[in-house]
Design goal:
mainly beta; five-stranded antiparallel sheet
């Protein structure tokens, strides 16, 4: 069990601070009870909070820009930290840490990356304690948290030389059961139906990227979407569990997976339809310059009212990081920086799947690259990342109608922000 060291400062616009939770745990039950009551009283009045990642670190910040704090777990040999699932009590979160990557020059990504040792941890926000989990009967050096099924059971991606699988296991790592099988392909992008009874995921299979659902044991499988001309990606359950939202990339014409269309279908695969045309969504986000480059797949997200947020491509847009299809991809990036050829950008769009109507929620002149939009738990705010062409992303928050947009931070040493994520009010 590890407790964190902490420093603080009042300058949040340019400097970064180490994370600190509240006062020490009282030794009597009455004290703990009073503290929980105090948290409940102040939760509704305090600003909503977000997590984000920056240069291998994880941070938390209030929606008004105050309280920027970086987690600093002080664990030997752990190079990067990422937040994972949050338990139902709102005070415990799973974190993923990684040691120095084993891929690199002369060591291709697909052969060496999964040799990187990773570790899973349970962090207690209230008591400021970190405990390693999933250590019993370890199946491989490479574990990543895929989906929390309950406060006792977790789906974990396990990658070995023979391939990747999802395993269901207890939080201590015991009782591991295969959720997917070797030879099926690499499953990821998991999403739990709101009632907690079925799982959706995309499968990078020998036949292409497909959308599947299953029960919590990985059985009773249903193929929702598969087509030789499309890379299907990023399933998300609708708030009522009656639809699946995902993307379709025409990968043969777009080997870098820069663009896609927004799709939805019933969980049984019926009523499949494309909600956009002409590969309107920015899919393979890339940003920064050669010293600060980064990226990762965008996914469309539901709002609580059943609308869809996604980064819409402005006409004739081209990213500054050009994919190089004429050479082997050995680093899972394979791009050259050509800002002089870039044009256009993206804006956050809200789509009504009932009638197909779309509205722009962000805009900028000159155009920026807006992406990673998500709605707060109250529905009052939308967080998103914004990067200029060749620039690093900054974290922005705006009101749900697009007004009152304001930048919060550009991350650790101003090296960029990615993957903003809202926390429940009681965290």
């Amino acid at each position: 069990m590890i407790s964190m060291n902490v420093t603080t400062s009042s300058n949040v616009s340019r400097r970064d601070f180490l994370f600190q939770c509240g006062a020490a745990v009282a030794s009597v039950a009455a004290g703990a009870g009073c503290r929980r009551l105090d948290r409940a009283r102040h939760a509704s009045a305090s600003p909503e909070k977000l997590l984000f990642t920056s240069h291998g670190r994880t941070a938390m910040i209030h929606a008004d820009g105050s309280g920027l704090r970086y987690f600093d777990f002080q664990v030997a040999n752990q190079v990067t930290w990422q937040p994972g699932p949050l338990l139902s009590d709102g005070r415990h979160m799973i974190f993923l840490s990684m040691e120095e990557r084993r891929d690199g020059p002369g060591r291709p990504f697909d052969k060496y990356y999964h040799h990187t040792p990773t570790h899973l941890w349970l962090y207690d926000f209230e008591n400021d304690q970190l405990t390693e989990i999933c250590t019993r009967d370890r199946l491989a050096v490479f574990y990543t948290p895929a989906l929390l099924l309950s406060d006792e059971r977790l789906l974990v991606q396990v990658v070995r030389d023979e391939g990747g699988q999802i395993f269901s296991m207890n939080l201590d790592g015991s009782d591991a059961r295969a959720f997917t099988q070797l030879g099926e392909g690499l499953p990821y992008g998991l999403s739990l139906r709101p009632d907690g009874q079925r799982v959706a995921y995309h499968l990078a299979s020998p036949q292409g990227y497909q959308i599947w659902t299953s029960d919590l044991n990985g059985t009773d499988k249903v193929k929702v979407a598969a087509h030789p001309d499309f890379l299907y990606f990023g399933p998300r359950w609708s708030p009522d569990g009656s639809w699946l939202l995902f993307q379709a990339c025409r990968f043969k014409a777009d080997p870098g997976h820069d663009w896609s269309d927004v799709c939805m279908a019933r969980p049984d695969g019926s009523e499949l339809r494309m909600l956009t045309q002409d590969q309107a969504m920015w899919f393979g986000a890339t940003y920064g310059n050669p010293e600060t480059r980064g990226g990762g797949s965008n996914v469309a997200e539901w709002t609580r009212a059943g609308r869809i947020l996604f980064p819409r491509r402005l006409p004739d847009s081209k990213v500054p990081w050009e994919y190089q299809s004429n050479r082997p991809d050995v680093d899972h990036f394979n791009r050259d920086f050509k800002p002089e050829l870039a044009r256009g950008g993206t804006e956050i769009c809200r789509l009504n799947p009932a009638d197909g109507k779309m509205e722009s929620v962000t805009s900028s002149l000159p155009p920026n690259w807006d992406f990673r939009a998500s709605e707060s738990s109250s529905g009052k705010w939308i967080a998103f990342c914004r990067a200029g062409t060749g620039g690093v992303p900054e974290l922005n928050v705006m009101a749900a109608d697009g007004s009152a947009s304001h930048a919060l931070t550009r991350g650790w040493e101003e090296r960029g922000v990615d993957h903003p994520r809202w926390l429940p009010r009681n965290t």
